[in-house]
Design a protein that fits this description.
heterodimer, A: Rossmann fold, 7 strands, B: 390 residues, alpha/beta, Rossmann fold, 8-stranded mixed beta sheet, 6-stranded mixed beta sheet, 13 helices, 17 strands, PFOR_II (chain B), oxidoreductase (chain B), 2-oxoacid_oxidoreductase (chain B)
Chain lengths: 286, 390
């Protein structure tokens, strides 16, 4: 990972233990590029991760401060941490699709509702790959996986009129973007905007799993097959006939008027209560 | 000294604030809800934050996050919520992050009876998370005043041992109204034996020493020390590893930092035990108050009865049970939980019995009668699951 690795990553965690050909490195590099282009230093960011492929591979790679939560709970940890950290300190979380859109969806939604200042990068490899390749919440409809040997029957969050980003937007998310790992600078620009956004922001990035998803659902463990598959589904032209899932990428939503940020609101509220003279109020404070 | 008439819930709230708690995150549940309500009123007055979480998993994780950022934090719940702490408890335990957990025990199993006292989480409080390879610290108050003192102590122990500490109360203690004295001067604080440990910061690079050492500052994020902590087995620097050798060091530390400093934790009260009584009543929490009256009443009737009241529960104070005697464990459950530990700890020639009630306290006369029966060699069982030779 060239100069970015030297500048931002712990050498003990290089090389990554990711499978050969894994697209997670592309996602990780985009986040580091965004941080670098924003001129941020290691002390500016506390980095959190979940478990699974994206959590395990990105945990404690950051030279600054790190934490990893159990599957799906990292948003709640980040909510508490936000209260304790100075407002200018940024929280970046790299999590998987199962973490964000499955087991952690409740906590994610409530972080959105509260507008907790954090940037969630969902590194989406289309299912549970570190446990051997079971289907998840973004697995393309009908895919053959280790837990859907006849093709996935369970509706996902990203097809047939459903979009998880719609739900997050409805819950109040101020910045939402979607990309694939085969994209370049436009994905970096979205991550930069997400990190700069004061409030909850999320960037959903699809990347190929070679070992499990490609091996089962695409029928080949050749990286070229998986990357071609992802590339031709990334913003296909209208005249391209692509079956199944496709990815419309870019900024999905950027709020024009900012909602109050959680920790700022809490600090203001506490200050107002103290100013009132330490007695209960009628709730009109803040 | 401030003297007020208040509940155990209020005592726990004031104690947390006294100890420097700045964040409370909780989820409403009877009978612990009042702690949350009290915290929502009190914390903003002292520059603290109250967060009503979406569930117990979130509540304790928010507390962990706040503690990771350097703020002391507490959560509270009752039985059905306590089991949901299993996930975050493990995280705080493994990452060695201080946090205080209050459980106002009610009648179980599951939702049971919401507004009546129980003691069903004795063992759950010993193993409140998965995976084993750890010791837990649990304190059990039996009055409003003691709820105050032990909550302050829980914060103190959490900081020194850098781990979650549970205050295992019950509904009578948390909902009961009694006089509460809150110290205001250093002399009063000292007289009450209250200890407060400020938060320190681990500047690393060592995440933990692979020894039983305590007073190791916890990881606090945001100081750009390159600190790391996670739910995975850590190396000394906090890197995640799959190596058994590191897991062994980590487990050794989690177990022996508690076991080898047990004297800082263990508290119990012996009542009339100097003359080696024939029967020793054993209890913790609110039943222990009936026990005290029962010992007094039995002595007045010429029965050689004593009592042991446990204040700290885990690590279990085996040393309190060195005497051979007929022990009667008095508990707010029907299955007998404390009695099993008494049986394990007491000398082999002891005779171990159990008297269980749930949802209400046993009566003094009932305990005296049971003690008399034991002294006379009479069987206890009137209703099999209530009184049973163990």
């Amino acid at each position: 990972m060239d100069y970015l690795a030297t500048k931002y990553l712990k050498t003990k965690k290089i090389p990554s233990t990711a499978c050969s050909g894994c697209g997670l490195g592309q996602v990780h590099k985009k986040v580091l590029l965004a941080i670098d282009e924003l001129g941020l230093a290691t002390g500016d960011i506390v980095w959190g991760t979940g478990i699974g492929c994206s959590g395990r591979q990105t945990f404690n790679t950051w030279q600054g401060d790190n934490f990893a939560g159990t599957h799906g709970r990292v948003y709640a940890i980040a909510t508490g941490l936000r209260l304790a950290l100075p407002p200018e300190k940024k929280i970046v979380l790299t999590v998987g699709d199962g973490d964000a859109f499955g087991i952690g969806l409740l906590h994610l939604l409530h972080s959105v509702r509260r507008n907790v200042d954090m940037t969630v990068v969902v590194a989406d490899n289309f299912g549970y790959q570190s446990t051997g390749g079971q289907y998840g919440y973004t697995t393309p409809s009908g895919s053959v996986t280790d837990s859907s040997p006849y093709g996935m029957q369970d509706p996902n969050w990203v097809q047939d009129g459903r979009d998880i980003l719609d739900i997050l937007r409805a819950a109040g998310a101020g910045f939402l973007a979607r990309h694939t790992s085969v994209e370049g600078q436009n994905a970096v620009e979205s991550i930069k905007k997400a990190i700069q956004f004061k409030g909850f922001s999320l960037v959903h990035i699809a990347y190929p799993c070679i070992t499990n998803f490609a091996g089962k659902a695409l029928g080949s463990r050749k990286p070229v097959v998986a990357y071609r598959w992802l590339k031709e589904r990334t913003n296909p032209a209208p005249d391209q006939a692509i079956d199944g899932i496709t990815f419309r990428t870019g900024i999905y939503h950027q709020a024009t008027a900012g909602r109050p940020e959680f920790s700022e609101q809490m600090r203001n509220f506490t200050a107002a209560v103290r100013k009132e003279g330490q007695h209960e109020t009628n709730g009109n404070i803040g | 000294m401030k003297r007020i008439f208040e509940t155990g819930n209020a005592a726990i709230t004031e104690a947390a604030i006294f100890a420097g708690c700045k964040v409370f995150a909780g989820y409403p549940i009877t009978p612990a809800t009042e702690i949350a309500e009290n915290m929502s009123r009190r914390l903003p007055q002292v520059d603290g934050y109250y967060v009503q979480a979406e569930d117990e998993l979130s509540a304790m994780h928010i507390c962990i996050g706040a503690s990771l950022g350097g703020l002391k934090a507490m959560t509270s719940t009752s039985g059905p919520g306590y089991i949901l702490f299993a996930d975050p408890y493990g995280w705080a335990l493994g990452s060695e992050i201080p946090v205080v957990v209050v459980n106002a025990q009610r009648v179980g199993p599951v939702s049971g009876i919401t507004g009546a006292p129980g003691q069903g989480e004795f063992y759950l409080s010993r193993y409140p998370t998965h995976g084993g390879n750890f010791e837990s610290i649990v304190l059990a108050p039996n009055s409003v005043q003691e709820a105050f003192a032990l909550t302050v102590e829980a914060f103190y122990l959490a900081e020194r041992f850098r781990m979650p500490v549970t205050v295992l109360a019950d509904q009578i203690v948390t909902d009961g109204w009694e006089t509460l004295l809150i110290p205001e001067t250093p002399a009063e604080i000292e007289a009450m034996g209250l200890r407060v440990q400020p938060r320190r910061i681990n500047y690393g690079p060592e995440f933990y020493p692979a020894t039983d050492e305590i007073d190791v500052p916890p990881v606090v994020l945001g100081h750009n020390t390159g600190a790391a902590c996670s739910d995975w087995t850590p190396t000394a620097e906090g890197f995640d590893t799959e190596e058994i050798e590191w897991q062994h060091k980590h487990a050794h530390r989690l177990i022996y930092k508690v076991r080898n400093h047990k004297e800082l934790i263990t508290r119990y009260e012996e009542i009339d035990t100097a003359d080696n009584p024939e029967v020793i009543l054993v209890a913790y929490g609110s039943p222990s108050r009936v026990l005290k009256s029962a010992v007094k009443a039995a002595r007045e009737q010429g029965l050689k009865v004593g009592g042991i009241r446990l204040v700290s529960i885990w690590p279990f104070p085996d040393e309190a049970f060195g005497r051979s005697a007929k022990y009667l464990s008095v508990e707010l459950n029907y299955d007998g939980q404390l009695v099993r530990e008494v049986q394990r700890a007491a000398p082999k020639d002891s005779d171990i019995h159990f008297l269980g009630r749930c949802g209400e306290l046993p009566k003094v006369a009932e305990l005296v009668a049971a003690a008399r029966d034991l002294i006379n060699g009479q069987p206890l069982a009137s209703i099999k699951w209530q009184r049973e030779a163990w």
